[in-house]
């Protein structure tokens, strides 16, 4: 009995591939071969891949004294940036309360979807992400630096003013005081003029006597 030769496989047409891709949708894009990972390329689950979270900036823990996207205070412990970007903050910053919806988060989520649908080629959506990142992390850092510089400047000005006043006080202490002018002391006693007065009277009497005789 002879061996039966295997039937040659027909090449799959491009039209068939296109139909399969359309029919399987996202499942076809996941490549379920043994070489594929169980996670999406961004490390998240496949069900979240189409949300565009891979276009978010790095996830960091917010500062306790910072604000969320809508200006709310941080809870304890603070939110991460991704929680705020994804609109996963809570009412009154209390994690036991329901998730609240903010315009900040809605704008970011829409931009992430638009970036996913355009495979990252959407400048308008990218600007929304960049602006949100600036508002949430960059602007507060710049403000904190400006406030710190202002405090340092004020401290130096106060130090300079204090030093200047101290110098003026030292100059006053080292300048000798001028003596207050006083009237000269009378060294001649009034009685010392009495002989002169007597002599003057005698001369007057003599002159009057001589005039009468003449």
What topology does this entry show?
Blueprint (H helix, E strand, L loop, with lengths): L13 H11 L1 H4 L16 H4 L31 H5 L17 H15 L5 H52 L19 H20 L1
Helix pairs in contact: 5-6
Summarize the structure.
The chain has 214 residues and is mostly helical. It has helices at 14-24, 26-29, 46-49, 81-85, 103-117, 123-174, 194-213.
Structural commentary:
The protein has a domain at 42-174. The chain has helices at 14-24, 26-29, 46-49, 81-85, 103-117, 123-174, 194-213. The protein has 214 residues and is an all-alpha fold. It is built from 7 helices and no strands. Mean pLDDT is 78; it is low at 3-10 and 19-36. Helix content is 52%, strand content 0%. The chain is rod-shaped, with a radius of gyration of 51 Å.
Approximate shape: rod-shaped
**Mean pLDDT score:** 78
Radius of gyration: 51 Å
Instruction: Please state the structural category.
Output: mainly alpha
As a percent range, the share of helical residues equals 40-55%
Oligomer: single chain
Largest sheet composition: none
Strand content: under 5%
How far apart the termini lie comes to 204 Å
Uncertain spans, ≥5 residues at pLDDT below 50? Answer: 3-10, 19-36
Number of helices: 7
Series of H and E elements:
HHHHHHH
**Secondary structure: number of strands:** 0
């Amino acid at each position: 009995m002879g061996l039966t030769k295997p039937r040659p496989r027909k090449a799959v047409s491009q039209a068939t591939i296109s139909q399969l891709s359309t029919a399987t949708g996202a499942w076809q894009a996941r490549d379920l071969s043994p070489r594929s990972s169980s996670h999406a390329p961004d490390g998240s689950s496949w069900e979240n891949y189409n949300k565009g979270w891979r276009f978010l900036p790095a996830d960091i823990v917010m500062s306790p004294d910072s604000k969320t996207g809508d200006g709310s205070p941080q809870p304890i412990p603070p939110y991460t940036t991704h929680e705020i970007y994804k609109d996963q903050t809570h009412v009154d910053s209390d994690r036991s309360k329901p998730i609240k919806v903010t315009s900040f988060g809605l704008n970011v989520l829409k931009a992430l979807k638009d970036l996913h649908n355009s495979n990252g080629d959407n400048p308008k959506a990218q600007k929304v992400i960049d602006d949100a990142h600036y508002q949430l992390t960059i602007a507060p850092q710049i403000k904190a630096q400006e406030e710190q510089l202002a405090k340092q400047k004020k401290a130096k000005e106060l130090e300079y003013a204090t030093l200047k006043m101290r110098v003026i006080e030292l100059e006053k202490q080292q300048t000798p005081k001028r003596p207050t002018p006083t009237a000269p002391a009378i060294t001649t006693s009034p009685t010392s003029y009495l002989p002169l007065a007597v002599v003057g009277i005698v001369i007057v009497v003599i002159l009057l006597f001589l005039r009468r005789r003449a």
